[in-house]
Amino acid sequence: MNKGVEVRYFAAARAVAGVDAATFDSASLDSIISLACSDNPELAKVLSQCSFLLDSIVVHDLSITVNDGSVIDVLPKFAGG
Q1: Which of 8, 27, 47, 58 is least enclosed, having the fewest CB within 10 Å?
Q2: Short name of one Pfam family for this protein (predicted)?
Q3: 5-75: CATH topology
C-alpha cells in the first residue's frame, strides 16, 4: 500500500526545488504546497505560477484533499511554438 503523496517537480520547479520529487502526508493541496515551500521562498514564487495535476487531472481548487498514494505533478508555464 502506498504511503504519502508524491509531488513531482518539472522544469523550473524542479530546478528551484533541487529535487525531482518529494513525499508529503495526505492533506489539502494548498497545505502540501505550503509545506513544500516552507524552507524555500524561491520555490513559492515559482509554484505561484504553476499548474497542478492530481493523478493526471488538472486541479483548479487547491483546497481539494489529496489522499495517500496520489501523485501531484507541478508544471510551470511552458513556452511553445
Answers
A1: 58
A2: ThiS
A3: Ubiquitin-like (UB roll) (3.10.20)
